[in-house]
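Before relying on records like the one below, remember that each one covers exactly one chain. Contacts with other chains, cofactors or solvent are not represented anywhere in the record.
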Amino acid sequence: MTGTHQEGGDGARRPRVDVSALVRARTHHPEAIAEAAARRARRPLLRENGRLMIVAADHPARGALGVGDRGLAMANRADLLERLCLALSRPGVDGVLATADILDDLLLLGVLDHKVVLGSMNRGGLQGASFELDDRFTGHRPEDIQRLGFDAGKLLLRVDYDDPGSLTTLESAARAIDGMAARRLPVFVEPFISRRGPDGRLRNDLSAEAVTRSIAIASGLGGTSAYTWLKVPVTENPDDMAWVMETSTLPAVLLGGDIGDSPEDQDAAYEKWRGALQLPTVRGLVVGRSLLYPADGDVAAAVDTATGLL
């Protein structure tokens, strides 16, 4: 279902995705997805170096299609899949985080062997919706992740002290953590303290105090934290990360987020990640848009630079 095209900076070529072949498989043989999952060659969550480099692509299911000032950058599915296939082929990339539709495509494309696969669990808090903080679990359930032989799950936990929807999300997140722990499956919890501005738009507070508080809240969810990981942002002042990460003993990865459209923004993000990756609880990176849609268009180079930080 793939060929190759578009050369990157080091000669890496982006695979061409045959959308017609994917549609034929989905139309005539939908069981092919479960069959591909059953025969997928698996690997441990962590290799010998104890580090993780995960490429994230679960944004579209929340209606978050923008990258920088490109409002629909992630809307072309074939283009997104090609970028993902190239990223997954780069040395040092351990796996992918995505929703069912994207992971199903990647299974059909045969690119998930020996990769860590994280299923995205709650995507109900649609970007810009009045109910954005009532972030219900509309994606993978713990039983789906177990059935498909995936390696972990991820959930988003945004808490606004002024929005009652946050309580629903807190409770459902705790039950999802319980469900994953009962199956001995890791779950990556991405916590934020969030607030609506005067324009009604939801913004995540990246101050040291807010990130500290969000880590404390997330660490205590569920009946056990044995299988819980944290997925945390770098604080506004990267120098604060050393004491912020003292809030919990849970293993953590850094998230990327939308870092902007300029090469300068990208370089600044790399420097923030570089420092935080030296902290004892930080085990790796989970980065999406900034690597899949870099300002200069060179996916391979962006991914290689990020993996080099590890």
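The two ends are 32 Å apart (CA to CA).
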